[in-house]
Amino acid sequence: MTNIPETGRNTRVQIRLVVIQILVLSLLGTLGGRLWYLQIRQGDEYAKEASGNHVQQVVQPATRGSILDARGVALADNETRLVVSASRTELLKMRDDGKAVLTKLAGVLGMQPQEVMDKVRLCDAKTPQPCWNGSPYQPIPVTDEATPKQALQIRERAEDFPGITAEPMAVRRYAAPGKSNTAQVLGYLSPVTDEEIQKAQDTDSPFLRSDQVGRSGLERQYDKALRGKAGVTRYEVDNLGRVIGEAESDPGKPGSNLVTSIDSRVQRVAEYELNEAMKAARKEMDRNTGRTYEADAGAVVVMEAKTGRVVAMASNPTYDPNAWVGGISAKDYKKLTGKDSNYPLLNRAIQGQAAPGSIFKVVSSAAAVEAGYDFDGSYACSSSYSVGGQVFKNFESADNGSISIGRALELSCDTVYYRLAHEQWKKDGGMNPKNPKDYFYKAAHEFGLGKETGIDLPNEVSGRVPDRQWKQDYWKANKDAWCKTGKKDGSYVEKIAYENCLEGNKMRAGDSINYSIGQGDTLVTPIQMATVYAALSNGGTMWDPTIGKAIVSPDGKRVEEIKPTAHGKLPISKTTLAKMDDALAGVATRGTAAWRFGGWPQDEIPMHAKTGTAEVYGKQTTSWFATYTKDYAIVMTISQGGTGSGASGPAVRNIYNALYGVQSDGSIDKKKALLPQPAKSLPKIKADGTITSPKVSKDPVKDLQSQRKAVEGGGNAPAGQQDQNQQATVNPPDTGNRQTRRRKRRVRA
């Protein structure tokens, strides 16, 4: 026998082997169970997911619907362009993040390398334009103006331009038919952001990463209808990216067309006349400041009086909306948003706020009647009115004796309204009222002021009615600042701050007096006043202003008309409304606007008007001109433009001439009238869905000017009448009370 133990028969070793065997068997059992669960129990589900990992989507952007004028003329449509795009995903795979490729691309396109690189960088709070505001995973357009030669170079040398594509694509076009720009009304597009994609993913109109979305104007308001639905084709690919079959497809759907109430011909005339009025005002001397008027901004609205539909809407300064197509350049972006730009992206017809001046007196007149004052009563139109040691003068200190409220409207007599407002202020309790009636402030709210009109455009502002509640809220918000800067014996501004600190929440006599003639803290927009004057024309109905008239499906089979809707009635009886209507007709025939409507065919087309010159502290006066006929209401305003009839009068007259075909001698030629009656029907839609549109003149303004010259050259215009259609602003005659007087913006009493 040997003393060496038999290895393997040791008890300890045997136990270890058994434990290892059990452990191995357990692991094999667990693995087998897991394989059974994955392959048998969940096999179908995981097979489907694995298949999905090899499906790639190809998106075909939907053709965006056109925006048409009332006659079917395209204001915004699409055109095919060669678009060069860069895939940021592919560029970032390169060692230099694609800088070499982009530099080479810039050489082909005739651009600066930095310009190309800026276009493909992503936007954030610290990155100025140009930059890409859309999804970083979709191709980023570098230019939409590539030539066929440039596109061919890129495609033939694809190995030199990885991540770069050059393809024909449908690109938005703002056609400007007949030179009608319509920029602020139409708006513009830009790529959808990831945030917008997330927000819309569970809605009935989700975004794709390739979508362009409306950012302002009608493009934004009707984006859902115009955008349509992009087509998506899904391809099965193997692990090498090769297509092995087509999985499924979702067909695309073109966007619907939007028919508007805009008439491109009238739009062109409105834009031209507004611009010419501003240019002419800049040549006129402001006697109060000793320098020419700045006339830095303006707006005009032409509205159908019986429906509230907008026929033309112009804002100045303006811009070319095509600048946004394909991505905006840094130079263009600065022009539109820089400090020296005067912000042309603003639609001043709905976003420009200013004191209304004397065109507000229709509100004060209605308020006075509601308060119990007789419209036909006798009121002193003295040369001045004193309150609390302050003397408020009439325009040019004119004294017209005792007159009615109607005649006060015609002559724009300030002192009549001073007296009415001051008397009512005292009846309401003065500085310490208990239960004030506040007829003058309530009337403004009932006229729809101090809130949005509801026009189908985004970002409308509400204006302001400075009633007691507003004064209280404003005082609370500004009291600390006023108390800090105010001085009892300081400058004018410091004195006002001191007074506001102590009693800024109280309605003073001076507040009510200023308010009665559309001054002080009152703010309105042109669209609000157009709505008011349209209501005066149609018998008192305040319509929601609308631009969209109908949404037409791509095939033309479905037409969704946008019906006019009203939001209230003017707080005026039929008797008072008739008297006010007569007084406003008197403004055009024997009042402050008569010198602008000499020779107008009043018997055939009754004209009604109101002039206004509003004060703004530290600036020149704002010109207002509000008018209406039985068909239209037209309101024009020019910031720092001078008097109402002086600056805006000729332009408004010329717009009416174009609408009705009124000639220099006062005759009416309906053949030359652009729109003697508002359009009632929609443009004709063909069986294939296309919309019939008439031939568009290169420039309706030049056509009208040629016709006018032909008539005047034939000697048909009487002496003294040929200047009625002039473009320049001229000084009014020295006779008569034509405008409100020059005063500080706020008066204390």
How is the topology of this model organized?
Blueprint lengths: L10 H31 L1 H10 L2 E6 L6 E2 L5 E13 L1 H4 L7 H11 L3 H8 L19 E4 L4 H9 L7 E11 L8 H4 L2 E3 L2 H7 L11 E3 L2 H5 L1 H5 L3 E7 L5 E8 L6 E4 L3 H18 L3 E2 L4 E2 L4 E8 L5 E7 L13 H8 L10 H4 L9 H10 L8 E3 L2 E4 L2 E4 L7 E3 L1 H7 L2 H14 L11 H8 L21 H18 L6 H12 L5 H8 L9 H13 L2 E3 L4 E5 L6 E3 L4 E4 L4 H16 L18 E7 L7 E7 L3 E8 L4 H17 L39 H14 L36
Parallel strand pairs: 2-10
Antiparallel strand pairs: 1-8, 2-3, 3-4, 3-5, 6-7, 8-9, 10-20, 11-12, 13-14, 13-25, 15-18, 16-17, 19-22, 20-21, 23-24, 24-25
Helix pairs in contact: 4-5, 11-23, 14-17, 15-22, 16-20, 18-19
Strand element count = 25
Largest sheet composition: 7 strands, mixed
The radius of gyration is: 35 Å
Report low-confidence residues grouped into runs of 5 or more.
Answer: 715-749
**For the residues shown, what is the average pLDDT?**
87
Question: Number of helical segments?
Answer: 24
Shape: globular
Could you estimate the helical fraction of the residues in percent?
A: 25-40%
Distance between the termini: 134 Å
Tell me the structural class: alpha+beta
Approximately how much beta-strand content do the residues carry? 15-25%
Could you describe the 3D structure shown?
With 749 residues, this protein is α+β, with helices and mostly antiparallel strands. It contains 24 helices and 25 strands. Strands 2, 3, 4, 5, 10, 20 and 21 form a seven-stranded mixed beta sheet that branches. The longest helix is centred in the N-terminal third of the chain and has 31 residues, at 11-41.
